[in-house]
Design a protein that fits this description.
By secondary structure, this protein is an all-alpha fold. It has a domain of about 100 residues: Leucine-rich Repeat Variant (Alpha Horseshoe). The protein is built from 18 helices and no strands. The termini are far apart.
Length: about 260
Amino acid sequence: MVRAGSIDPLLRLLQSKQLEIQEQAVLALGNIAGDCDDYRQIILQRNGFSIVVSFAQQNIDKIGVVKNCIWCLSNLCRNSRRDSSQFPYIRPHMEFLQRLFTCNAADIAADACWAFCFLTEASVEHKKEVVRFVNPNYLVHLILAEDVHLQNPALRLAGNIVSGDQDDTQLMLNAGLLQVLLSLLGKAGSMQKKEILWILSNVTAGTTQQITAVINMGFIGYCVSVANKEGLMLQTEAMWVLCNAINGGTVEQVAVRTATHQ
């Protein structure tokens, strides 16, 4: 389909006067974008991201249309090759993604959150620029969402942010990230526990103050318990939390925790 030259006609169909045809074109572009980096790059080079954003803005009062558009845009943000050349096509529309990220419609907010996940994974070079469009307090709020389809990308995005520099990590801690993670542990499934432990391992890779915050919330005892009782997947993540805390912690921090868990 792509090799036959379908992308340009699909983009032109977004100028159709029939909404149903426009929506079908968006869905087709979203499917193509989700296939591989090469196809995403072609759509981006044809100004596809801007065209889909414009279509969504023209129909911002139609939830179904916006839902299809943000799904397409989220797929265009995927970047398995970590290729920084894709971001310039997306950069002018970060405020629009931010707007949809805070949308009350859970499906739209979830796909916008996935878009930010993909962007913060794609390029270290542009990560800091992307993170400034994410409100830490709102992201922490999303982690508490009842809808796991919204909660899961929120956890992933939080993990991506705290895997960056220590300043970004501190912003997330100031927003109450650790308290929210602690409250989530009791009802989290295995995959969510894995995400939580991954987040904690990135925090314990930070400053001694950030390690102290993890210790004070009681996560070290939890990680020791996981390392002793759970399966290999969770054991591995828990050991990363503990190893990072030991490597980056002070002698006093390590001594206190060792004495507690002998």
